[in-house]
Specification:
single chain, 242 residues, alpha/beta, Rossmann fold, 7 helices, binds fructose -6-phosphate
Length: 242
């Protein structure tokens, strides 16, 4: 695992966007794994700008998001499908048929994970997976103590994650308590992983993830296993690294 420290948040965000853009230029039909959350907003804004100003072509790209809330419809402003449309897909020339998220309204909750994994396999597997990290060390919605071998499945969110994400809901009590997420094992199968971590609020958990022991209590520490993982951080997030 390689850790790259940039002096400012903006530089870290730009570098992450540039890595995604290079992946698209190098392999126009690449399969990207995508994340949501506040950290990614500037990355998607930069990709939209690269499409608009430099003609970055997404027409053959395929995307798989990490997660989706159970019970939210695609047109719910709090769903991750809505986030992706608003922040990225509506601003680039991606084919909607090539953008995948777990179905938050799936009728068969236990089948949704295997079904999603079959779709990932059908598209050839993920070339580049973008990740953020939760304040409790989660990746996707793999909460502390998720197995490193876990697959895409339905999970119950922890009180920490509910506290982290519920402010994004107009009525915080409306935040779903369950979600679908790619598993840690699924994420580790991506050919390349880029995790972006910014802000002092993530400094402690970042240090635990990249310098601490491999431990299911910090799901992001699983990236230490990966042969081709890069963690891009700003100086604030790096402040607790040794
Ligand atoms: C969301 C996801 C989460 C976030 C994490 C950080 O798709 O994968 O693991 O990356 O919760 O969220 P922010 O960026 O809002 O701090």
């Amino acid at each position: 695992m390689e850790v790259i420290i940039r002096s400012s948040r903006e530089e870290a965000e730009k570098m992450t966007a540039a890595m995604l853009a290079t992946a698209v230029e190098t392999k126009p039909d690449c399969v990207l794994g995508l994340a949501t959350g506040r950290t990614m907003e500037a990355v998607y804004a930069e990709l939209a700008r690269l499409h608009r100003d430099k003609g970055l072509d997404f027409s053959q790209v395929c995307t798989f998001n990490l997660d989706e809330y159970i019970g939210l419809a695609p047109d719910d402003p709090n769903s991750y499908r809505y986030y992706m449309q608003e922040k990225l897909f509506d601003h680039i020339n991606i084919d909607p048929q090539r953008t995948y998220l777990p179905d938050g309204l799936s009728k068969d909750i236990k089948q949704e994970g295997p079904h999603y994994e079959a779709q990932i396999r059908y598209r050839g597997g993920i070339d580049l997976q973008l990740l953020g990290i939760g304040e409790d060390g989660h990746i996707g919605f793999n909460e502390p103590l998720s197995s490193f071998a876990s697959r895409t499945r339905d999970v119950t969110l922890t009180p920490e994650t509910i506290a982290q994400n519920s402010p994004m809901f107009q009525r915080p009590e409306d935040m779903p308590r369950r979600a679908f997420t790619m598993g840690v094992g699924t994420i580790l199968e991506a050919r390349r992983i880029v995790m972006l971590v910014t802000g002092a609020g993530k400094a402690r958990v970042l240090a635990a993830a990249v310098e601490g022991p491999l431990a299911a209590i910090v799901p992001a520490s699983a990236l230490q296993f990966h042969q081709n993982a890069v963690v891009i951080v700003d100086a604030a997030a790096a402040s607790e690294l040794r």
